[in-house]
Specification:
Elements (H helix, E strand, L loop, with lengths): L3 H27 L5 H27 L8 H25 L9 H7 L5 H11 L7 H22 L6 H5 L8 H4 L3 H37 L14 E4 L11 H6 L1 H8 L5 E5 L4 H4 L9 E5 L10 E7 L10 E7 L18 H16 L2 H14 L1 H4 L21 H11 L2 H14 L13 H28 L8 H9 L8 H9 L6 H29 L1
Antiparallel strand pairs: 1-5, 2-3, 4-5
Helix pairs in contact: 1-5, 1-17, 1-21, 2-6, 2-14, 2-16, 2-17, 3-4, 3-6, 3-18, 5-6, 5-17, 18-19, 18-21, 19-21
């Protein structure tokens, strides 16, 4: 059991280093000697060179096949923290009004925390000295932190978390004065909105059941002429006489599946997809259906039949409604294709390939590549023996007695040592540029700002301690792995990532991020007290 004074000093010391380094970035920015271009350049150097080098140099010596099982709990804890943060931000949104251009950004602010510079600096300081085991535990803490960074990058970019920020700037502008309301009125409005949403879902499910019942009734009708199974169905929705009820093109298309099912002797299901609306169809002379799938395994020897739309207009029908004729054309090899039949490839495969390309491209960032490269090297012993000494190594050493590729790891360690101070200077510079409309405090969503800060910096640490201890009790986290436990606990007390400021500036038409700034500053102010208390409690819990 550590003494109270020692626990307090160990808890405060990492934050003192963090504050000093961050203050330098804040001061030089306010003094005008660290302009925006220089800050962006330093940030690019940190993200593309320094941070990947730090992760590479820490993961390889720290991870072994024995502690590789910690990756599962780390991923579980990270996903839980992100989901809990999003849920908490959503609850804040239900009780307090939020600016229109931050209605989805508040979910990002709640879910994605600063998993980079702040925890790296604090955890390296805590685990690098007593009561931990010095350099070995320090490397292990950064290696465990890499799992949080990986999940952060995957959920924010490949899985589309950043699109929530883009959604804030979709649609027309709405004045915040129209949204500003007391808490009880906002809660009443939220309840009313959810009632309407649930009613729409129930009505939609009821309609689906009605449609299914009607299809079953239709399938039970007696079959038509058996010869229809061997022939190609040809349907024409011709214009009726003046005495009859006219059928519009939209009605014809809407009734197409029912008419086709009645024409064929066996039940045939149709999925009619058209990329153009009926309004556009009425403005062109000929329309070819872009997508028509026929699931006719029971309807004939050919699996794919193409339904083409041909709209023909004769000279003596210009004064009346236009005629829409639809024909099912069988594209079997023994049948000649008519010039009017145009097979258009479904764009679904293109969308899937494009999505996969975007996901793979989002992984091609240096920090993620460094993590994905370092983990296999650390876990495959022959590869690890090339970089760092291991017992019973099958790889002969270089003339200096070190592994052949130890110089790469040494260079990565040397470069990565600059990652933490440079990142903290960039953090201070970013905080110095945050613009808060001080003269308009009354126009800010004070309730949402305050409760999001309280939730992330005061409530989430309590939830993090309880969740981590539950995993320890369940045997998912090894009780003897104190580095893993303090990493999982500490990561529950990080403020919103400053990455959201940069993403908001990208998606914003004006390049400003005033709403994000107003939500970030209180969190970073509370962070100093909440982190100190959490570290002190964690040390007393572990030792």
């Amino acid at each position: 059991m550590l003494a109270i004074g020692k626990v307090i000093w160990i808890s405060v010391r990492p934050l003192l280093r963090l504050v000093i380094c961050t203050s330098f970035g804040f001061i030089v920015t306010k003094a005008g000697i660290f302009p925006l271009e220089a800050a962006r350049g330093a940030g690019q150097v940190m993200l593309n060179i320094l941070l990947p080098s730090l992760l590479f140099s820490k993961i390889i010596p720290a991870f072994t096949p024995q502690n590789a099982g910690a990756l599962g709990p780390l991923i579980l804890v990270c996903v839980f923290y992100e989901a809990s943060g999003i849920l908490m931000a959503w609850l804040v949104k239900q009780f307090f009004w939020v600016p229109h251009r931050f209605r989805y950004g508040i979910l990002v602010a709640g879910g994605w925390g600063n998993y980079g510079d702040i925890p790296t600096s604090v955890l390296m300081s805590i685990t690098g000295s007593a009561p931990f085991n010095g350099a070995s535990d320090q490397n292990l803490s950064v290696a465990y932190l890499a799992a949080f960074l990986l999940i952060f990058c995957v959920t924010l970019f490949p899985m589309g978390g950043h699109r929530l920020i883009a959604m804030d700037y979709a649609g027309p502008e709405i004045d915040d004065a129209e949204l500003r309301m007391p808490m009880f009125q906002k809660l009443k409005e939220s309840i009313s909105s959810w009632r309407q949403y649930v009613s729409r879902i129930l009505a939609r499910e009821h309609q689906e059941h009605v449609d299914v019942d009607s299809e079953i009734t239709q399938d039970s009708e007696p079959p038509a002429d058996p010869e229809g199974e061997e022939n190609v169905a040809s349907l024409a929705f011709s214009e009726p006489t003046l005495d009859d009820k006219r059928i519009s093109q939209g009605d014809a298309i809407q009734n197409l599946p029912m008419a086709l099912s009645r024409q064929n002797t066996r039940t045939t299901q149709f999925s009619f997809q058209c990329a153009q609306t009926s309004k556009r169809m009425s403005n062109v002379e000929s329309v070819s259906a872009k997508s028509m799938a026929l699931d006719d395994e029971r309807a004939g020897p050919c699996r794919n039949d193409l339904l083409s739309l041909n709209k023909m207009q004769s000279d003596d029908e210009k004064r009346d409604d236009k005629q829409l004729s639809l024909a099912i054309v069988n594209p079997c090899p023994d049948r000649a294709k008519t010039p009017s039949t145009i097979a258009v490839r479904s764009p679904r495969s293109h969308r899937i390939l494009k999505r996969l390309y975007a996901i793979l491209k989002s992984f091609m960032i240096p920090p993620t590549l460094s993590i994905l490269t370092a983990f296999p090297i650390a876990l495959i012993q022959p590869l690890k023996a090339l970089f760092t000494p291991i017992p019973n190594s099958p790889i002969p050493n270089a003339p200096d007695g070190q592994p052949p590729l130890a110089f790469i790891l040494d260079a990565a360690s040397f470069i990565g040592a600059a990652s933490v101070p440079v990142s903290l200077i960039c953090l201070g510079s970013a905080l110095a540029r945050l613009h808060i409309p001080r003269q308009n405090w009354g126009t800010l969503p004070v309730g949402a700002i305050a409760w999001l800060a309280i939730g992330k910096m005061l409530v989430m640490p309590v939830v993090g301690v309880a969740f981590t201890q539950a995993l320890v009790s369940a045997g998912i986290i090894d009780a003897e792995d104190k580095v893993l436990r303090i990493v999982c606990i500490f990561m529950s007390c990080v403020p919103t990532a400053t990455t959201q400021v940069f993403l908001t500036q990208v998606y914003s038409d004006t390049g400003r991020a005033d709403h994000v700034s107003a939500f970030l500053v209180p969190q970073y102010a509370i962070m100093l007290l909440s982190m100190t208390a959490l570290i002190a409690y964690s040390l007393s819990l572990l030792f």
